[in-house]
Amino acid sequence: MKILVPVKRVVDYNVKVRVKKDETDVELDNVKMSMNPFDEIAVEEALRLKEKGVASEIIAVSIGLPEVQETIRNALAMGADSGVFVNCTSKLEPLSVAKILTSICNKIKPDLVIMGKQAIDDDMNATGQMLSAMLNWGQATFASKLEIQEKKIKVGREIDGGIENIEVNLPAIVTTDLRLNEPRYASLPNIMKAKRKPIDEIQVKDLNIDIAPRLEILKVEEPKSREAGIMVKSVDEMIEKLKNEAKVI
Amino acid sequence: MKTLVVVDHNNNKLEKSTLNTIKAASQLENVDLLVLSDSCKDICNELINIKNINNIFINENDAFKNQLAEDSANFIAENFKNYTNILFSNTSNGKNIAPRLAGLLDTMIIPDVIEIVDKQTFKRPIYAGNAIATCKSKNKINIITIRATAFEEAEIGNENVGKIQEIGNLTSNNLSKYLNSELTKSERPELTSADIVVSGGRGLGSAENFQLLEKLADKLGAAMGASRAAVDAGYVPNDWQVGQTGKIVAPNLYIAVGISGAIQHLAGMKDSKVIIGINKDEEAPIFSISDYGLAEDLFKAVPEMESKIN
Ligand SMILES: Cc1cc2nc3c(=O)[nH]c(=O)nc-3n(C[C@H](O)[C@H](O)[C@H](O)COP(=O)(O)OP(=O)(O)OC[C@H]3O[C@@H](n4cnc5c(N)ncnc54)[C@H](O)[C@@H]3O)c2cc1C
Predict the structure, then answer these.
(1) How far is CA A51 from its chain centroid?
(2) Can you give the pLDDT at residue A196?
(3) Which helix (H) or strand (E) holds A199?
């Protein structure tokens, strides 16, 4: 079984992002970048399937500027076998990413795509579902449990009321939730080994896909800030404030 | 211009956030509703008195009982592609179906909208709510999910307004199959619409200790929430998670206990009206957004609070 894992380079989750003064975007200069945490979970899940003997090959793909090859290298250092780098200098929306991934899937023909449920930069939560629509494959979003059966997968999904179990025919798209697994760290020898693993480069223009954005970003602004609060000294004072000042209990 | 709201429900009851989505839709124009279920009657009864709606389209089919994304998206794409706007609540169902529909209709989804500026311009949070983006849509069809806490609920009158009409035929593509679900049972109010939320974090230390908080919640008639760390540690079920990747809440009162206040957690609760933080570390970031902070050991403060509230 062949597994494709799309990985995105995003602002590290520990960074407190700031809006640019001109309100066109957030500040991205000199900010630490990492693999989207949900994608790390996706890579980890693919690796576990390979270790169980269910998967035979794991391919990591990333789309963007040459820097995204670092993210592919991270996936290779974790244990993926090879990478695909789609070179693209324009800003992409999930719709375009899904179209590019459709084209990659048609070429590579994976049996399963495991990807993050959302990227922590634009918080879209869309690419996996769009990709499965375009391929006309089944989808299992927000997965916290994954089991491969013959020609099918069984997935536990995190939904608003608890967990839902579904079965999806292969090939399929799975999007990962936080509790699917805990991703491993790449060991030093594996980081060295990853440098020799192959990354295939594709130019986005060779794919002949319309990637023009459909949403024009007019402005990126700070959220409303809250007024500063106070520290109280005791539970009695807290209850008094909640009753008489805030009037919420 | 026609606007469709896809109704979220569990086949018996309306999912409350649908009312907020309908309210948001009323800022667009000509609002119709769509109910897909194996049994639409009870849900339609809840919808029929809502003000300012036109048609309530229904399709009853066993295949819709579990709202599998593949069938729902195909059905909507086939029957409603002449609509200008299709809105969903940003619930786990909405998040599952809406982007698939957008993929089918070759349109860029506009998720988690918190403000409709005009008919083509929408505001949405990005970077865990640390920035708000204003997006102008060039889509022919806008597929939107609505953040419930950012909109009021639609008004309900005494007159039957909606005209119920059957529509369409589903041909199921059988790509996926529902097996079963493990739902968290609770007598408490629903987390995303509760007036008061009591949330616990890693500081609670165990599932047993969460009972301290649950006692306080029950005294206040509150819903229970949690940080990711508390869910990951197995203290509480996953559907209690509040945050960037959990539920978004904005109650009148949010009580954060033993929660440090990571940005991913704040993303889910910082629009609450009043926030209180209880944490033994007086430097904890939760205090920077708390209206009232108490730097004390929770194992002392929580039982005391519980006993003193009547
Ligand atoms: C991709 C991604 C998505 C995420 N999504 C979410 C999300 O949706 N929601 C979410 O919550 N987190 C999320 N997180 C995790 C987030 O970054 C934090 O790790 C998490 O919120 C921390 O939970 P916590 O505050 O309970 O634990 P900690 O940060 O460990 O804080 C525990 C707190 O308890 C206090 N404490 C300990 N003992 C006591 C005591 N006896 N009395 C009083 N106080 C005490 C400590 O002082 C400390 O401040 C996400 C992370 C990533 C990477």
Answers:
(1) 22
(2) 97
(3) strand A199-203
Q: Which residues of chain B make contact with A137, given a CB cutoff of 8 A?
A: 175
Q: How far apart are CA A151 and CA A1, in angstroms?
A: 10
Residues of chain B with CATH 3.40.50.1220: 191-308
Q: Cβ contacts (< 8 Å) between A138 and chain B: which residues? A: 70, 175-176
Summarised one tens digit per residue, pLDDT across range A149-188 is: 989 999 999 999 999 999 999 999 999 999 999 999 999 9
Q: Which residues span the domain enclosing A34?
A: 2-245
Q: How many whole angstroms separate alpha carbon A44 and alpha carbon A5?
A: 10
Task: Write the pLDDT tens digit of every residue in A83-106.
Answer: 999 999 999 999 999 999 999 999
Which residues 105-134 on chain B approach chain A with CB closer than 8 angstroms? 106-112, 121, 125-134
Determine the residue among A95, A235, A239, A241 to mutate to test chain B binding: the one whose Cβ has the most chain B Cβ atoms within 10 Å: A235
Q: Rg for chain A (alpha carbons), in Å?
A: 21
DSSP reduced 3-state for B288: helix
CA atoms lying within 13 Å on the CB side of residue A81: 13
Any idea which architecture B191-308 has in CATH? 3-Layer(aba) Sandwich (3.40)
Please report residues of B whose CB lies closer than 8 A to that of A220: 126, 131-134
Topology (CATH) of B3-166: Rossmann fold (3.40.50)
Give residue-wise pLDDT tens across range B224-249: 999 999 999 999 999 999 999 999 99
Q: Does the reported pTM lie above 0.95? A: yes
Interface contact A52, partner B, CB < 8 A: no
CATH number where A97 lies: 3.40.50.620
Please tell me the total count of domains within chain A. 1
A163:B182 CB<8 A: yes
User: DSSP string covering B27-72, please?
Assistant: TSSSEEEEEEES--HHHHHHHTTBTT--EEEEEE-GGGTTT-HHHH
Q: Given an 8 Å threshold on Cβ–Cβ distance, is A231 in contact with B287?
A: yes
Residue B237 near chain A (CB below 8 Å): yes
Residues of chain A with pLDDT under 50: none
> Pocket around ligand 1: residues whose beta carbon is below 6 Å from it?
A 13, 37, 120; B 201-203, 227-230, 241-246, 258-260, 262, 264-265, 268, 279-281, 284, 297-299
Which atom of ligand 1 is nearest the CA belonging to B259? 25
